[in-house]
């Protein structure tokens, strides 16, 4: 489970240059992370994989296309696009997987921070969560 708490800064593990790029694809992992993007230790039990494609159009909008593959079938996941401690607990969308465990959602919100990452949480089993493998600059 991701800890919701005070965050000094979201500046860990940045992939320099994303702010100038049109998009960036980042894999999802079951490795547990905190609200600041640092490792929380341990891994989840989710069977699948996936990725997030981030886009930052010049309009000041951040778009995250979140894709789950071979996750738990017919399961609903809450998706959080985390840009600061204030947005860590905010659910921005949901993915309900099909009978193969596949699903996706596009999250679009104002770009309010300097970094972002995604957490995908199984609504029935918190140990079955996915997180992006890095915090990205926006």
Keywords:
single chain, 138 residues, mainly beta, disordered N terminus
Structural overview:
0% of the residues lie in helices and 46% in strands. It contains no helices and eleven strands. Strand 4 (49-55) and strand 5 (61-69) form a beta hairpin. The two termini are 25 Å apart.
Gyration radius (Cα, Å) is 14 Å
Number of helices: 0
Uncertain stretches: 1-21
Tertiary shape? globular
Q: How far apart, in Å, are the first and last alpha carbons?
A: 25 Å
> What's the β-strand tally?
11
Please write the string of helix (H) and strand (E) elements: EEEEEEEEEEE
Structural class category: mainly beta
**Percent of residues in helices:** under 10%
- What is the mean pLDDT? 83
Strand content: over 45%
Specify the biggest β-sheet. 9 strands, antiparallel
Write a brief caption for the model.
The chain has strands at residues 23-29, 31-33, 39-43, 49-55, 61-69, 76-82, 93-96, 103-110, 115-122, 130-132, 136-137. With 138 residues, it is mainly β.
Write the layout of secondary structure elements.
Layout: E1 23-29, E2 31-33, E3 39-43, E4 49-55, E5 61-69, E6 76-82, E7 93-96, E8 103-110, E9 115-122, E10 130-132, E11 136-137
Antiparallel strand pairs: 1-4, 1-10, 2-3, 4-5, 5-8, 6-7, 6-9, 9-10, 9-11
């Amino acid at each position: 489970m991701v800890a919701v708490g005070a965050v000094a800064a979201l500046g860990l593990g940045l992939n320099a240059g994303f702010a100038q790029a049109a998009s960036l694809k980042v894999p999802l992992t079951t490795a547990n992370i905190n609200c600041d993007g640092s490792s929380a230790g341990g891994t989840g039990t989710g069977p699948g994989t996936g990725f997030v494609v981030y886009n930052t159009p010049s309009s000041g909008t951040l778009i995250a296309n979140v894709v789950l593959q071979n996750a738990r079938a017919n399961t609903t996941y809450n998706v959080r696009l985390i840009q600061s401690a204030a947005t860590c607990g905010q659910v921005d969308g949901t993915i309900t997987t099909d009978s193969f465990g596949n699903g996706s959602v596009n999250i679009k919100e104002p770009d309010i921070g300097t970094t972002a990452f995604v957490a995908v949480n199984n609504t029935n089993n918190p140990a079955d969560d996915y997180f992006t493998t890095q915090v990205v600059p926006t």
